[in-house]
C-alpha cells in the first residue's frame, strides 16, 4: 500500500470517528483495510461478508462522502 493511500485512509478514519458512535466505529469501521486504488475505484478489505453487508447498508454513503472530502476524488468503493 502506498504512503499516500495510507495517509489518506488515516485521515478518513479520523473524520469517521467524529461521525459515528465509538461502538459503531469499533464494530464496523475500524477493521476496514484499504487495499489499492485502480482507475476510479477504491478497494477495501472487510473482515467478513456479514461486515460487508452491514457496512454497505449502514455506512456506505458516509464512507463515500468522507473519502471524497479527504481525497477530493469521487471513488467507487469496492468491498
**How do the helices and strands follow one another from N- to C-terminus?**
HHEEHHE
Number of helices: 4
Please report which band the strand proportion falls in: under 5%, 5-15%, 15-25%, 25-35%, 35-45% or over 45%: 15-25%
Q: What is the count of β-strands?
A: 3
- SS-derived structural category: alpha+beta
Helix content: 55-70%
Strand order of the largest sheet: 1-2-3
Round the mean pLDDT to the nearest integer and report it: 94
> Radius of gyration, rounded?
12 Å
Q: For the report, how would you describe the main beta sheet?
A: 3 strands, mixed
Straight-line distance between termini? 16 Å
Shape: globular
Please characterize this protein's 3D structure.
The protein is an alpha+beta fold and 79 residues long. The chain contains 4 helices and 3 strands; from the N terminus they run ααββααβ. The protein has helices at residues 3-17, 22-29, 49-58, 60-71; strands spanning 33-38, 41-45, 76-78. Strands 1-2-3 form a 3-stranded mixed beta sheet, covered by helices on one side. Helix 1 (3-17) crosses helix 4. The longest helix has 15 residues, at 3-17. The protein is globular and about 30 Å long. The mean pLDDT is 94.
SSE diagram, text form:
Layout: H1 3-17, H2 22-29, E1 33-38, E2 41-45, H3 49-58, H4 60-71, E3 76-78
Question: Keywords, please?
Answer:
79 residues; alpha+beta; 3-stranded mixed sheet; 3 strands; 4 helices
Amino acid at each position: 500500500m502506498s504512503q499516500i493511500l495510507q495517509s489518506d485512509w488515516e485521515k478518513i478514519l479520523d473524520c469517521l470517528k467524529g461521525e459515528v458512535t465509538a461502538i459503531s466505529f469499533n464494530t464496523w469501521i475500524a477493521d476496514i483495510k484499504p487495499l489499492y486504488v485502480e482507475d476510479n475505484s477504491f478497494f477495501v478489505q472487510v473482515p467478513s461478508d456479514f461486515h460487508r453487508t452491514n457496512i454497505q447498508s449502514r455506512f456506505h454513503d458516509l464512507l463515500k462522502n468522507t473519502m471524497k472530502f479527504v481525497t477530493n476524488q469521487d471513488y467507487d468503493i469496492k468491498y
